[in-house]
Design goal:
There is one protein chain. The protein is 27% helix and 36% strand. It contains five helices and nine strands, in the order E-H-H-E-E-E-H-E-H-E-H-E-E-E. Helix 3 links the parallel strand 4 and strand 5. The longest helix has 15 residues. The termini are far apart. The relative contact order is 0.16.
Length: 157
């Protein structure tokens, strides 16, 4: 029987599993740029973190969802959606009027998840991953070249 999973805010100084963070962003140098400036929501199973979702402040009125990831064996069970919705609640409490999320053109499941959570596509940054990551990324048999930017007005959700 599987133990219950709790969605909660990360504790101050709590160490997030590197392998989990790398699921959403395969370049550790990119993760390090936002890791310690981000408010983290975690999915916790008896003290073991199986999912993360970061909320990075961009300005007094805007934030970005960064690094939403769930261990592969727990994917498809709604934990990613719960993490994102909790992060959006935090964004609303902090009065961020707009929240953005960026993902790859090949991240088909993630694109669907973000839209189910209320995000809308606003633009594409061509060749973002080609120009900013040292190794080519392939997902779902697709070369991840372009960054898709989605956003949500938290006052309309």
């Amino acid at each position: 029987m599987e133990t219950e999973i709790t969605i909660r805010q990360a504790l101050p100084g709590e160490v997030l599993p590197k392998q989990l963070l790398l699921l959403a962003d395969p370049d550790w140098s990119q993760v390090e740029k936002y890791l310690h400036q981000t408010d983290w929501t975690v999915a916790d199973q008896n003290g073991r973190i199986i999912g993360v979702c970061g909320l990075l402040r961009l300005s007094s009125s805007e934030a970005e969802i960064v690094n939403a990831a769930v261990e592969e064996r727990y994917q498809g069970r709604g934990y990613g959606k719960r993490l994102i919705l909790q992060a959006l609640n935090e964004a609303g409490a902090k009065e961020y009027g707009k929240v953005i999320v960026r993902t790859g053109n090949s991240s088909l499941d993630q694109l669907g998840l973000y839209q189910k959570c209320g995000f809308r596509m606003v633009r594409i940054e061509r060749d973002y991953f080609v120009n900013n990551y040292p190794e080519p990324i392939y997902e779902n048999g697709i070369w991840c070249r372009d960054q898709v930017i989605l956003e949500m007005n938290t006052r309309e959700k």
